[in-house]
Write a structure and sequence with these properties.
Layout (H helix, E strand, L loop, with lengths): L5 E6 L14 E11 L11 E12 L3 H8 L3 H7 L4 E7 L8 E12 L2 E5 L3 H7 L6 H5 L2 E3 H19 L19 H6 L7 H4 L49
Parallel strand pairs: 3-5
Antiparallel strand pairs: 1-2, 2-3, 4-5, 5-6, 6-7
Length: 248
């Protein structure tokens, strides 16, 4: 949604199930964007979400590093605001913040009556790494939306069967929660171990100018069958959303 990008810096802390120590000066510049949800391909949740769309890790060594990190923030707004896509979500990269983190953004585009989903880095892969992939592999980077939805649905079933409903294979790992309304049970649950009574995580910062009238987002019109309006695609090199994780 346009005009909703805002950034803040947080200490990075892992959930209990990740046995990895970090120095106390590890920080994450995190930029949040509000999104309007047309459909949940897996699970369910509210009609709008505040998500961590851009994360820049850095080591805090003084005020200059804060300024340097903050200079990366506007890239999130330029890249994502006013665009429609399929968002892959996981819990935040730090338990200091109760939020969902966007691990990938697949662009949704309309060409005539066809609506398709494009993989991140598609143009970069085709331009610089074509010789490393078969034509069949390359075709997976650009798929009709209905076909993409089928693949995602089958993948969710296969994942649940493999992991026993957990976030990955392992009896000591948290159960996968696919309801975006239920982040707190994940944070408080076994394997994460956050106490809201003694050390509650922060919520995303408020939207700048939240009291101003809401502007309608740009869409393909796929959700209501109309022709919609198509955003101009951004550069193929998206900001690094990370990789992995499992969420709605």
């Amino acid at each position: 949604m346009p005009g909703t990008t805002r950034c803040s810096v947080y200490k990075r802390e892992f959930p209990a199930f990740i046995d990895f120590a970090l120095a106390s000066d590890n920080r994450l510049l995190t930029c949040f964007i509000d999104v309007r949800v047309n459909d949940y391909l897996i699970g369910k949740g509210p009609p709008t979400l505040s998500i961590a769309a851009y994360i820049y890790p850095f080591i805090y060594v003084g005020e200059d590093t804060f300024d340097y990190a903050a200079s990366h923030g506007p890239e999130a707004a330029r890249t994502y605001e006013g665009r429609e896509g399929v968002l892959f979500l996981a819990p935040s990269l730090t338990t200091v913040v109760e939020a969902l983190w966007m691990t990938e953004f697949w662009d949704v585009q309309r060409t005539g009556d066809a609506v398709k989903v494009l993989a991140p880095y598609k143009e970069l892969i085709e331009r610089s790494y074509r010789d490393k992939f078969t034509e069949e592999n390359l075709a997976l980077l650009d798929r009709p939306l209905d076909e993409f939805e089928t693949v995602i649905s089958k993948g969710a079933v296969a994942r649940a069967a493999e992991t026993g409903g957990r976030i990955a294979v392992g009896d000591d790992l948290p159960m996968l929660i696919t309801d975006a309304n239920l982040l707190r049970p994940y944070y408080e649950g076994p394997g994460v171990g956050i106490s809201y009574e003694t050390d509650a995580p922060l919520l995303p910062p408020p939207v700048p100018g939240a009291e101003d009238p809401e502007q309608p987002p740009v869409t393909t019109g796929e959700e209501d069958g109309s022709s919609g309006s198509v955003p101009v695609p951004g550069e193929e090199d998206q900001p690094d959303g990370g990789g992995g994780g499992a969420g709605p």
